[in-house]
């Protein structure tokens, strides 16, 4: 104690909340973690998190800070690291200054799996267990590679464009183009099965389920924001696939 | 045969999504096991019940209980186990299909798909709530036991 004042604590708590929220933690966990840290340093902190902002308020002197949040992709490694840090801090294994440094480090941390591991992962997700006995084995084998290409296209566009939803739409276009070309060439037997299977890494199913979980926990605002986000992503993927289909029809006929 | 294949591919797809969402490495294998077991439960429940609600509900309860257990054992937030295990169950393909119908102008099919997606999502979410209610009763003694054993 002693090497920090209230403002520091509020700022740090806001940073922690933002990192957690941006990388896919649920709102109740964000609020819980932040308030827990406040309790550890004996400063009563109230935190309110929605999907678009984190409000952190210290009760003692009415210091409030608002942090804007842009929810992005899942990066659960950061969530786990922050969780470990806050646990160590509340066990007094870390001092406040050390915690501050470590949180900054996590915020700008870019450690990730290597690109080929990511692609392999996307490919594995693209072989949907849901379709094991509905699609032919060869179609599933193809969808492994189609899914990888869709994932690469989405990631590439996501790195180069800030327009929301464009990356998943391009992913949909790529997958649809490949699937329909494969079917027109007579390699694949059913384009629709390949598309559904290969879209698994892109579709917002997990987001939809998380949004319903939030609504059940009575975090209604966050839940609705997540649900709208999921439906928008669904619309962009759907229209992307339709555009790809039309393009193939125009070029190859049939 | 169906169960073995379901187990293998459920495992692989959970691990794959774990890699895509950048899970910490120590959580990948437990997440894979949970995903595989949940998928087997889903298949077996599907044999006796042809709706979408019961299989998804049971699978979500299994994920919830095992996920909370591994969260204690591996010391990680429970969401880390939920996200990759869910990927083969969630109604992503149905949302996509319904939105595609929407784009093509088939409003009736679009609405049908959306309602179905909401139903599946809701049954998964309720499954998690049930699982969490059960885990909150079961696991605190276990946690205490682990804590004591470490201190002795």
TrEMBL record, chain A:
Transmembrane segments: 140-157, 163-182, 194-210, 230-248
Compartment(s): Cell membrane
Any single Pfam family the record assigns to this protein: ThrE
InterPro entries attached to this UniProt entry: ThrE-like_N, ThrE_Dicarb/AminoAcid_Exp
Keywords: Cell membrane, Membrane, Transmembrane, Transmembrane helix
Domain Threonine/serine exporter-like N-terminal: 12-244
GO terms assigned for molecular function: transmembrane transporter activity
Identification of the protein by name: Threonine/serine exporter
UniProtKB/TrEMBL annotation, chain B:
UniProt signal peptide: none
Keyword field: Cell inner membrane, Cell membrane, Membrane, Transmembrane, Transmembrane helix
Listed transmembrane segments: 28-45, 52-74, 80-96, 117-135
GO BP terms in the entry: succinate transport
Keyword Cell inner membrane among record annotations: yes
InterPro entries hit by this protein: ThrE_2, ThrE_Dicarb/AminoAcid_Exp
One matching Pfam family: ThrE_2
Domain Threonine/Serine exporter ThrE: 7-134
Compartments, as annotated in UniProt: Cell membrane
Bilayer disposition of the protein: Multi-pass membrane protein
Subcellular location, principal: membrane
Any Gene Ontology CC annotation: plasma membrane
Family membership noted in the UniProt record: Belongs to the ThrE exporter (TC 2.A.79) family.
Protein's UniProt name: Threonine/serine exporter
Species, as recorded: Companilactobacillus suantsaicola
